[in-house]
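Reminder: ligand-aware prediction takes two inputs, not one.
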Amino acid sequence: MEINTILSGDVRSVLPALGDNSIDCCITSPPYWGLRDYGHTEQIGLEKTPFEYIKNLLVVFLEVFRILKPTGTLWLNLGDSYIGGGRAGKSGHAATNGIEQFRIDRGLNYGQPTGKIEGLKPKDLAGIPWRVAFALQMAGYYLRQDIIWNKPNPMPESVTDRCTKSHEYMFLFSKGRKYYFDYKAIQTDTKGNEWDKRARIGRKCFPTDKINGIRATGYYPKANKRSVWTVNNRPYHAAHFATYPPELIIDCIKAGCPQNGIILDPFFGAGTTGVVARKLGRNFIGVEINPAYVKIAEARLQQELGIFL
Ligand SMILES: C[S@@+](CC[C@H](N)C(=O)[O-])C[C@H]1O[C@@H](n2cnc3c(N)ncnc32)[C@H](O)[C@@H]1O
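Here is what comes back for the chain with S-adenosylmethionine:
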């Protein structure tokens, strides 16, 4: 199996060629439902209902399940959508204010279908991330954690009857009950009320540090990483609208994939997973349906890493 490569095509036709139990980890962000048009007839994300969308994702992630090693994990970044949002662009709504224009500029040019969707009303939050999570759980994955990606710089919204959405999910799934998870690799430094003179596991106390008037000497203990991750959104300034920030996936890679292991990203986009994987000494396999995005990812890998694909 070739590694550090991008496979061009529909993920549903590409993944069957990959071997069973061959990948350490999958880290990915599929198109969110009804949000963006990625310019390909076979793309996932523009289904008429959330249920068709979930069915398509299920097909993909059942293949991923087969390809993952028994100790493998899936880190799935998903955001939610509203029913019948009637966005600018194809939905017919004119771009009349700065926010709508901003959305079009960012590729948010797709309006969700406003027809009847069983069990859901216009304005309902679709609850897509959890629906997908439960579907994958039913399909055999262990749903291990709902990590909240807290975005201090969320997309502006012109709403007046709810809060501005400023979070997404990063679900952690495992293939088996026991799996590779290097929790030590993502532990954080603390500055709590305790220190340890001998352990030498955390940050060294500063000579000026005092706790309850007593001078702290030695080391602060490390703490396990928590489940709310605060990461600024940082779009990649090439012709791809929906990249995740590299900082979001650094700890997924450190905890989820051993050195020299292989990470699969079935929705590769501009290749953020590949870039960060290589920087951290892991390998990648990317799949992307739009040849224009494959070119963008290749150019980025070359520019940031000097890799020629
Ligand atoms: C949210 S973007 C991924 C961005 C990526 N995480 C990054 O940081 O660059 C989703 C990508 O999935 C691709 N895609 C959509 N449907 C696909 C399919 N059926 N097979 C493969 N890729 C698909 C889109 O073209 C888009 O580039």
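Residues 75 and 172 are 5 Å apart (CA to CA). The two ends are 15 Å apart (CA to CA). We will return to this case in the review session.
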